[in-house]
Fold this protein.
Amino acid sequence: GDGMGRAFPEMQMTTYAIYGHNSTPSVMCDPHGNAVCFEHAITEKWHETMARACVIAQGGASVLASAPMSGAFFKAHAIPHSYTQAIGLGQAVLDARRAHEDPIKAICEREGGKHVFSGKINDLKRHFERGFNVGVASIEGLDDCRGSVGEITIQNEFLIFRRDGEMQACVPDLVVVLDLDSGLPITTEVLRYGQRVAVLALPCHELLRTQQALDVIGPAAFGFPELVYRPLAETA
């Protein structure tokens, strides 16, 4: 298991931090040989803020070792079977392609997700801000989505998907972008103008859907307090 079951851009956005683990003392090291020790942070958000400032100063590449946790705490608060899930997803795509079936459909069936949009990226605005890659990808609808416009909000990861201005999926549920033909994943840093993509919405684990978790990883935590999170798992 792991502490996210997906990817989030900030250190306090783990189930470990959400449910009470203190990750300091910690040590950050960069490729130049520098080491920074964080003896104590009053909150996990402060730990993230200080570490983010350091990694920017170190050129954007560092590794961090945080304080250990007990096995009992890990078992109670980790997202279980996340590595098994990742391997299984890859296998589902490979199996579908070998059988000349739709890999996108195979993923949705395996994960209880929805194929919410198909289209071609026709605009991409992306820049570096506060230590994050942030931006918006605009998608011109294809096939059954022709005539519609999709939009994905980005902060290192895919946060929110809107269709014709209406939110269809948002954190902490997963907004997933795949190559429309192969079903292979496309991450934020390799998005390009003209790519044909499928946008999927997959439900997150129940540990990420509590109010305690939503205070840290819901849309308001990313600067969108006007958005109301509706769990995909309850509407699928």
